[in-house]
Amino acid sequence: MRLLNRIVLLAPLLIAAEAGNAQEFVWDSEEVKAHCIAEWPDDFSMQAYCMEQNREGFDGFNRLAEVNAGTILEPALARCVEEWAVQWDMVEYCATQQIEGSEQAPTAVVGLPEEVANTILAQCDRQWGNDFSMVAYCAEQQAGSWRSMNQ
To answer: Residues 79, 73, 27, 52: is their CA dihedral positive or negative?
Structure first.
């Protein structure tokens, strides 16, 4: 039951972070510029667009990171930064997917017998841990399979 509580509490878990708890991320315009130039070496309009998208992604991600500081989502968001580095548009997308996954996992098992729901969430949690988008996907697949066999 503890695991179900962990998963079910994910959606409303946006615990207010204490000031100073949020990790600070640094906008390095030269590093982002180098990335955009490498992606679009002969297209200056795409370089500029790339810079703009990454700046917007950086700002958006920082808002998400601030809201979710001190929550169970914080390690997943940090992993997005590690995975996508200076591609801040992708960091923000990854973070959004993690947040949405944390909300979707509990809803995937709604209506299932409690024991089945607990089994599915436990298995998906063991398999995917703090990758909430994959926990949600796993739970949706498992719940759908259970339903197709039992209804």
So the answer is: positive
